[in-house]
Design goal:
Chain lengths: 352, 355
C-alpha cells in the first residue's frame, strides 16, 4: 500500500462526496438540524404534578410534606384567586378545602372539597388528580391501612434527577448522523462501481486492499468528525471523553462496513436511498428504546447499533466508565469488524 | 393530448412502477406511520402510569385499578417476569399480591406486599401508583370516603390527543409522498436514462408523458391517503366528498411532482430540492399539531387547502358549503400548476429534441 496514493484517494472521495448536491446538503442541513433539535428539546424533566392549593385550615407542615411526595403545590390566598389561576391556564387543577375542613373531619362529619379542573386536561390526568384528592381525604382523616410494603427500586434511582429528553435524544442523533454518512459513502461507491472508475483504479498501482483501506478511511473520517462535532457542541464529551471517542470511532467503523454492503446491493442513487433507509430504520430501533424505555425486550441486543447507543447512553446519562462499558465495546468491535469484513468481501465480488 | 396514448403510457408506468423503491416507500409510509403513532402515542406517551401485577390469589385489585383511566394495568404470570418488565422500564411499578390479599385487607389484618419500582420512573408516576394502590385497597376493604369532592371544570378548550394532532401530518405525508415523489422521480429517471428522448421520437407528446406520470401519482396518492384514513378510523360521514377532496389534493401534489421532475436535472438535485421544500409542504400539519401557534399561519402554505377540507369533513362532518372557500382556492392552485406544466412540457420537449 502506498500512503501517498491512499491520501490522494481519500482527498478525491471527500471532494466527490461534497459534489453530490443531495448528500452535501443533508450533511450540512442534517448536522445543523440535529444540533438545533437537541437545543430545542427540554433540558430538564418536570416530574412533579402541579397543583393549585387553597387550604387555610391545614397546618403548614402538612403542606410541606405533600410538596416532597411528587406534588408541586402553589399556594393561593383565596379560592377565587385559585379559580382564576385554573381558568387562566396557570394551573391544570386547583384544590380548595373549606376553612373548617379540619374541625369537620374531627367531628366525624363529611366536609366538602372542591376540585377545579381545566377543561383541556387529558382524561388520564383528570382521573389521577381525582384519585390523589380522594386519597388525600383518607390521609387527612387519619385512616391508615394495615399494609406493610417492601419497596425495591430496580436500577439506579433517578427520582429528582431524571434524564432530560435532550440527553436521551443524543444517542439517536449520533446514530442518524452516522447513517447519513453511510448512505453518502454508499452513493459514492455505487456511482464509482456503475461508472467503472473503481475497476479503472485497480489498473493503477493501487492494490485491492489499498482501495478498501482508502474507502474505509474516508467513511470513518467523514462519520467520526461529524458526530465528534455534534458531541462537542452539545456537551456530550464532558464525561469520559476518551471512552466516548472510542465508541464513536467504533460506530464510524460499523457504519462504514454497512455502507460497503449498501453499495454492493445498489445500482443507483435510488436504490442506495432504499437500502439505506431500510438499514437506518433497523439500526435506529435500539435508540428508540432509549427514548421510550420498555419498548423492546432482549432481542434488541441482536442489533449491532444497540452496543453503540447503549454505551453512549450509559456514559453520558449514568456516568458509566470503561469497566461498565467494556462488554459493549468488545461486542461493538466484533460487529464492526464483521460488517467491515463482510462488506469488503461482497463489494470485492461485485468488482470481479 | 391523446387519451389512448396517455392510457398506454399510464399502464406502462403501473407495470414499471413497483420496481422503483419510491413506489413501495409511498405505500408503506402511511401504514408504518400509523402503526408508529398508535404504538408510541397510544401506549408509551400517554399520561398513564404503568402498573404490573402478579396475583398469587384472586384479588380484585388488578380489575379495580384497571378501571381508572390514569393507570395502565398489566398482569404477569410470575414475580420474575414482573421484575424483568420493571427493570427494563416497561412498567413504572410492579406489585406481587399474596394469595389471600383481599381477605387480609377486608379484615384489617396485616398484609405484606412487595413493590418493585423502576429507577427511572418519575415522582408523579410513583405518587399516582402508590395512591392508586392504596385507594383500590380501601375500595376492597369497603371503607367510605371521608370527604365529599365536587368537581368543577373551568374553561372552554378541549383536550386534543396526540394521535389526533398528528393525523393531518400523516395524511399530508400520504398525499404528498405518493403524489409528488412518484411522478418526479419517474420523470428524472427517464431523463437520466435517456428513455425520455426515445419517447419523444414516438407519436406521444411531452404533455401525454406528463399526464401519464401524473395519473400514476394521483392514483397512488388517493390510495395512500384513503388507506391512512381507513387505518386511523377517520373516514367521517361523507366518504364521497372526502374522496373528491383527496383526489383534488392528489392532483395538486402530482402537478407539483411533475413541475419538480421537469425542472430537476438529476436525482441528487431532485432529492435536495424536495428536502428543502419539505418543511413548506408539511408546515400546515405541523401548525395543527401545536394549538398554541396561531392557526392562521397554516393558511399561508398551499397544502393547507388540501388538509383543511379533509379535516373538516372527517372530524366535523362538514359539507361542501362549509369547505367551499378552501375547495375553490385548491382548484385555483391546480389551475395555476397546470398552466406551469403546459409551459414546462413545451420547454422539456424542445430540450429533449435538442439533446
Amino acid at each position: 500500500m502506498n500512503l501517498r496514493i491512499l491520501v490522494a484517494l481519500v482527498q478525491k472521495d471527500i471532494s466527490l462526496y461534497f459534489k453530490n448536491r443531495f448528500f452535501a446538503l443533508i450533511t450540512v442541513i442534517g448536522l445543523v438540524g440535529f444540533i438545533g433539535v437537541f437545543f430545542l428539546m427540554p433540558k430538564s424533566v418536570e416530574e412533579n404534578l402541579p397543583v393549585g392549593w387553597y387550604a387555610p385550615s391545614l397546618p403548614e407542615a402538612f403542606t410541606t410534606r405533600l410538596q416532597g411526595e411528587g406534588l408541586e403545590l402553589t399556594l393561593y390566598s383565596s379560592e377565587e384567586a385559585l379559580r382564576t389561576a385554573v381558568l387562566d391556564g396557570d394551573e391544570p387543577i386547583g384544590i380548595a378545602l373549606p376553612e373548617d375542613f379540619g374541625p369537620q373531619l374531627a367531628r366525624g362529619e363529611t366536609p366538602r372539597a372542591v376540585l377545579y379542573l381545566r377543561s383541556d386536561l387529558a382524561d388520564e390526568y383528570r382521573d389521577a388528580y381525582l384519585l390523589l384528592m380522594e386519597e388525600l381525604g383518607f390521609m387527612l382523616a387519619g385512616q391508615q391501612l394495615n399494609i406493610e410494603t417492601e419497596e425495591v427500586v430496580l436500577g439506579q434511582d433517578m427520582a429528582g434527577q431524571q434524564i432530560a429528553p435532550r440527553q436521551r435524544m443524543l444517542p439517536i442523533l449520533v446514530l442518524m448522523i452516522l447513517m447519513m454518512e453511510a448512505m453518502g459513502l454508499a452513493a459514492l461507491l455505487s456511482a464509482e462501481i456503475e461508472t467503472g472508475t473503481l475497476r479503472a483504479l485497480l489498473v493503477t498501482d493501487l492494490t485491492v486492499a489499498g482501495l478498501f483501506v482508502s474507502k474505509g478511511v474516508t467513511g470513518i473520517l467523514m462519520a467520526f468528525f461529524q458526530v465528534l462535532l455534534l458531541l462537542v457542541i452539545t456537551g456530550g464529551l464532558q464525561q469520559e471523553p476518551v471512552l466516548i471517542l472510542t465508541v464513536l470511532l467504533l460506530g464510524a467503523f460499523l457504519v462504514t462496513g454497512i455502507s460497503f454492503l449498501i453499495a454492493a446491493a445498489s445500482r443507483d442513487l435510488m436504490s442506495v436511498f432504499g437500502w439505506g433507509m431500510l438499514a437506518m430504520i433497523g439500526l435506529a430501533i435500539p435508540s428508540f428504546n432509549i427514548l421510550l424505555p420498555g419498548l423492546a425486550t432482549d432481542w434488541i441486543k441482536g442489533i449491532p447499533s444497540y452496543y453503540l447507543v447503549d454505551t453512549i447512553h450509559q456514559v453520558i446519562n449514568f456516568g458509566a466508565g470503561w469497566e461498565q462499558a467494556s462488554t459493549n465495546l468488545l461486542v461493538l468491535l466484533a460487529f464492526s469488524a464483521f460488517f467491515f469484513g463482510l462488506g469488503i468481501v461482497i463489494l470485492r465480488r461485485k468488482l470481479q | 393530448m391523446n387519451l389512448r396514448r396517455i392510457f398506454v403510457l399510464y399502464i406502462k408506468e403501473i407495470i414499471q412502477g413497483p420496481k422503483n423503491f419510491i413506489f413501495l416507500f409511498a405505500l408503506l409510509v402511511p401504514v408504518v406511520l400509523t402503526l408508529l403513532v398508535t404504538v408510541v402515542f397510544g401506549t408509551y406517551l400517554t399520561g398513564q402510569s404503568r402498573l404490573g401485577v402478579v396475583d398469587l390469589g384472586s384479588s380484585m385489585l388488578p380489575q379495580l385499578a384497571g378501571e381508572n383511566q390514569a393507570l395502565s394495568v398489566r398482569s404477569y404470570p410470575s414475580a420474575g417476569a414482573l421484575k424483568d418488565a420493571v427493570e427494563r422500564g416497561a412498567l413504572d411499578m410492579g406489585v406481587v399480591l399474596p394469595a389471600d390479599f383481599d381477605r387480609q385487607v377486608g379484615a384489617n389484618d396485616l398484609a405484606r406486599i412487595t413493590v418493585y419500582i423502576w429507577g427511572e420512573s418519575q415522582m408523579q408516576n410513583r405518587l399516582i401508583l402508590g395512591s392508586a394502590m392504596v385507594h383500590t385497597m380501601r375500595k376492597i376493604s369497603g371503607r367510605p370516603l371521608p370527604v365529599e369532592i365536587e368537581q368543577v371544570t373551568l374553561g372552554q378548550g378541549n383536550n386534543v390527543p396526540w394521535e389526533k394532532r398528528l393525523l393531518p401530518l400523516i395524511v399530508l405525508m400520504a398525499v404528498l409522498v405518493a403524489g409528488t415523489m412518484i411522478p418526479a422521480t419517474s420523470l428524472v429517471t427517464e431523463k437520466v436514462k435517456r428513455t425520455l428522448t426515445a419517447l419523444n421520437a414516438s407519436p406521444a407528446t411531452m404533455l401525454d408523458v406528463f399526464a401519464a406520470k401524473g395519473l400514476l401519482g394521483i392514483t397512488l396518492s388517493v390510495l395512500s391517503a384513503t388507506l391512512t384514513l381507513f387505518l386511523n378510523q377517520a373516514f367521517g360521514a361523507r366518504p364521497l366528498l372526502l374522496l373528491g377532496v383527496l383526489t383534488l389534493g392528489a392532483v395538486f401534489s402530482a402537478a407539483l411532482g411533475i413541475i419538480l421532475g421537469a425542472l430537476a436535472k438529476d436525482i441528487s438535485t431532485l432529492f435536495a430540492t424536495i428536502k428543502i421544500l419539505r418543511i413548506l409542504l408539511f408546515a400546515p400539519g405541523i401548525v395543527y399539531m401545536f394549538p398554541e401557534i396561531p392557526q392562521w399561519i397554516g393558511r399561508i402554505f398551499p397544502t393547507y387547502y388540501i388538509i383543511q377540507p379533509v379535516l373538516e369533513i372527517t372530524q366535523n362532518n362538514a359539507g361542501l358549503a362549509e369547505i367551499g372557500q378552501e375547495f375553490t382556492i385548491l382548484i385555483g392552485l391546480i389551475v395555476v400548476a397546470l398552466g406551469i406544466i403546459t409551459g414546462l412540457a413545451r420547454r422539456t420537449q424542445d430540450a429533449v429534441a435538442a439533446a
